[in-house]
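Pasting two entries for a bug report.
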Amino acid sequence: MPESAVSNVVINVDGMVCAACQSHVQKALDQTEGVTNAAVNLMTAQAVVSFDPQTVTPERLLESIRDTGYEADLPRKGLTAIEEQEEQDRSQAAEVHELGRKALLALALGLLVMFVPMILSGMTMHSRWFQVSAAVCTLIAMIYCGGSIYRSAWRVVRHGSADMNVLVALGTGVAAAYSFAVTFLPGMGMADVYYEAAILILAFVLGGRALEAQAKRQTAGALRKLIHLQPANAHVIRDGEERDFPLDRVRKGDVLVVRPSEKIPVDGTVSEGSSYVDESMLTGESVPVAKQTGSLVIGGTVNTTGSFRFEATALGEASVLFRIVNLMRQAQGSRAPVERLADRISRIFVPVVLSLAVLTFAGWIFYEGHIFRAATAAVAVLIIACPCAMGLAVPTAVMVATGRGAQLGLLIKGGAPLERLHLVDTIVMDKTGTLTEGKPRVTDVQMSDASLRLLAAVEKPSEHPLARSIVQYAESRGFIIPAATDFQSITGQGVRAQVEGHEVLSGNQTFLEQNGIALPPDQSGIFVAIGGHYEGSIAFADPVRESAPAVISQLKRAGLRVILLTGDRREIADQAATQCGIDRVVAEVLPEGKTAEITRLKSEGKIVAMVGDGINDAPALAQADVGFAMGTGTDIAMDAGDVTLLRGELAGVLQAIQLARATWNIMQQNLGWALIYNVIAIPAAALGYLNPVIASAAMALSSISVVANSLRLKRFSPAG
């Protein structure tokens, strides 16, 4: 199917509480005709689906999810990524509050039923008054506090599936049904009742979910901070006077005023004044950046010292902040390949657990003959075996890692790049703009000051990087640059203009020779002729980034092989490689040659990361296992690679790899804990060592421990 024919939709899924739930929804979407790819995320409660609109509609996708017993809806139309996240934050906060309130009520009712007979003299668990009162408390807990659990369980069972809600409903239902029978049916005698067990199981399950929901909110903390960067209003110059407007009334081309300590409301270009701007929340760089006329400023960053005016150039969806938030939300909703393992386990887990519970019940009846002893052990198996931790193991780590990456100036596009990145063993680097600063500097001037002054005048109208470096060099020497007239640029060759009555030519050897200028032998760089006479030359170099040698050394110490891959001349590439300590150089290759080199490395079994500027290196970035795009300011090539280095510094490559390795360790720990927990806990419950109340508390603790372990990534600090 052509890529242009594929549509994408985000679906909100309600009712997923464990890995089995996620697995049911994932399977339903995968089996829907017309779906090319689906990623269901338990953490975000969303499914991101790619589909063929000629074969299936979004409404049909909703039906596929609802057929599994879960509710599904499309997000409200017209919302930006920032507005969607704000709405999700409000929903999560309300969920935490509601679950916490119901958990506390259930806990209070459970403790009341448990301790009242101990407090009131003459009352026992076998008294009629106590049992009727306990039954009422249990009904309140089951209907009000746990009503959503039973409704979800019924929907899922009705559609032929089973998940955590089914396990909890069965466990508490068995305990409550037995106790109701003892209380209200004649002939049950003085048998014990287990109302407090049913209530406390619900209390611990709901309490665990409340803590999970709160922890989930914490995992999106970095994204939440980004969203609240933009101020509510902007100072806009309209009709010659300054007025305050809400951001939605700011128009492209408006001139805005920013004062010290204020947030910059939208993206733009400084038109008057100068200052230093703190861009740390977007780039991770703590040192404020100097801004002057012509500088780009990013909405959401903080002006520190001076006041300035700027022209609004990008609003709403076109702004850098919006694009970062949108990409982060996509990343945090993506799935790492390792989650397939959790899916495969979860799909068979609940049926296996139900079978084990039946076998446990039958075993206790056979060996002991006590029906409730058998039921208690079976209920404990149902409760303890819930695969919640399995479903949270990977997405929590991905969410926290991508958030922490953003704080460090690393925009990592989801779980798949994170998982691949920890395996990378070869780093391939472009030279210009990646290993070097990408800003050529004048290194040698072979002409008089008078000639240099006229040359700067000719180059000033040009936008070429070499021309800008000549002008900057002349200005740094204190020259007052005159105006040029009759300016003419010949692409790829040079420029000519009239300055103070002289014709000035500047360009390569071919350009000057075509204009009848004889050049001395063994000269290089840009050649200059004034009034028909050769005046000299000027040479340039693109300096290696100051941090490059140290970063390359650290990458090597981390066990990575570094290769320089460039289209530049061999001697220039070798010089840069020598300065940085790079052993292997592939030079003088076109973009197709870069792609071919990466393909060759991959064929040797290497896991390759490519670092480039994100534009002319796009094919190579796409071909690599992981693509790093260098990005600064508003010119961020976010779509080119898997990781965007917002600071535009090579140190980000090492930091991203270290973060990926730390995240992979956390994923393994989480999955290992989830599996080991069940391997130990299920036999213990089946053998009668765990009663249902303790089992429910342990089940909640397992999920919380996984989320808490992932939250350790918020404190990740890169080494070196």
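Entry 2 (this is the one that rendered wrong in the viewer):
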Amino acid sequence: MNIIEAENLSYRYPASDKAILDGLTLTIEKGDFLAIVGNNGCGKSTFCKTLNGLIPHFITGEFKGSVKINGHDTKTMTVSELAHMVGYVYQDFDNQIVRPTVLDDASYACLNYAYSDYLSRGKEALKLCGLQNKEKDYVFELSGGQTHLLALAGALALNPEVLILDEPIAQLDPGHADLIYGILKELNEVHGKTIIVIEHHSEYIAEYCHHVVLLKDGKCAFKLPTKEALNHVEELKEANIFVPQVTRVAYALKSRGYNWDRQLPISRDEGLEYFKGMDFWPNEKPASFKRGEVIVDFDHVILGYRTMSKKRHVVFKDLNLKIYEGDRLAIIGSNGAGKTSLLKMLVGLSKPLSGSLKIMGKDTSAYKPQDFAEYVSLVMQNPEQMFIADSIASDIAFAMKARNISDYEEKTAELLEAFELTALQNRDGRLLSGGQMRRASLAIGVALNPEILLLDEPTANLDMATRKEIMDTLSRMQDIIKTAVIATHDMQLVAEWANRIVVLHDGEVIADGDRDSIFADQRVIEEIGIRPPAVFDLAKELKADNRIYTVEEFVKQARV
């Protein structure tokens, strides 16, 4: 039975000359777990907003064709009526949290509909999302993963048949990502919910989804069972979708005649069977790294703050960490481990309660944040927060002009060139694509030529092609920035970029080393829930002493 039917659906935004949806026809069966994929701007979110009535009832534009939910035409229903049928958790899910405490927020929609049992509905939704012990907590005390689950609970409270999640794990560590998808699986298999995810992480698509829809040029290019869909490697690659690493390895080796007559694997277990008995050339010796002088020194730092309940929340209870000139340092750990708090201390937005933090030999307790602007620069997780002018050229020049740097115009032109932004220099940064915004925010970050560049989740919320673009940009920046510190959940970025990895857990540094030592430490892997790149685990299972981090390395070292 079809629960969703879109027929000849077209939609054009008011300010656009081109329809983003152009004759899309698609049916989705009741009880499906479906992933919608496609490159940025292909209409994934737009299509999903036609399902809950935001388009055309709230977001105006030219709407043609029809969308039916359980046989009901969305044009004849209100957004309020559709909310009982289709629940939506948006990519910027923080904006869905509107009340101060957890139960208050989860039950808020039901209260608005004047349900007498609104509290019990909220409690049941929290239970389904594993938040039953957080009912009285303030929402700002939750971790990122818990906040995402609260947004899901708020949608679930109305008991819709369809749940839509836009990039559900974009900002989460692997443990919380597994938790989110585990809950979605239970909602699908036990409670019969139809689940639709807009997702770039193809490993999760391979493990959890039943079908995959590829949107291209405003239409449905295909709707296929997941394994068949992920074997369309070239078609997905053209749409900037990277299939799972195990699939990409098999596809690359197939061109060399390896298992040319077999369907490509899409999971680790399938990969182990597919590559069974494969031998590898020895690992290449890693490049040596010479450490420079200490430029940051955390010495027995304690950091904390008081919560609304007047309890003290301790972020760091005894932080000891030195950062050296030349470090390409990745700070990793689960949500709430203190990664962003550490970056905030480095730019002076947070001060230690005790202990000392020295930057370039200066104790930060004796200085204001602006005193360290020439040494340390932070590129925020959400790049749009760094744009304050009406053009990116003005944004890049802003800090230099404020400090009366005489040749700021020449330096601005050099940065525009270095970050491939010259053709975009007169554009408003907030209106650029995801990759362009990231490059512009990086240019702003290095404008004052800081000794240390800090980056908070630089690849979050990006599709695979844009993510690769940013990784290439970071590699080129090695000639511009001496020392860089990245807080991230992106283990592929960590494996390819960092020469040093620090693991935070429970307010302390529990591991510090290169990628081989960190990813080979099973204690750290299990305790923190770190997930090395999938190709690393696959290669290690096939040969215990393998240290392979990329698809290209696997293909190069495989003896076929």
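Dev reply: Rendering is fixed now. As a check, the viewer should reflect this: DSSP finds 23 helices and 22 strands in the chain.
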